[in-house]
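Show me a record, fold above all:
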Amino acid sequence: MARSVKKGAFVDGHLAEKIASAQAAQSKKVIKTWSRRSTITPDFVGHTLAVHNGNKFIPVYVTENMVGHKLGEFAATRLFRGHSAKGSAAEREAAAAEAAPPA
């Protein structure tokens, strides 16, 4: 469910302060944050934020298309390592048998 328009987008206070100070200093340094729940506002555009994914910090360069989304959407927390090779080997053999010309 969406947040009330009257309240505005949620941004953690400490993150908003870091962005404001970076804009005032015109600094492009990477800003570390644990706040995955913060909404990206137009102030964030052009900055690189290092978002924590539970293990390490993932650098996220903020563009205009990201405004309105949450920071956590751009730093995946799970690593997909692929499906087991057991089933795929049998499938490869079956596909090779079908593709082979009749002898």
In short: The chain has a mean pLDDT of 88.
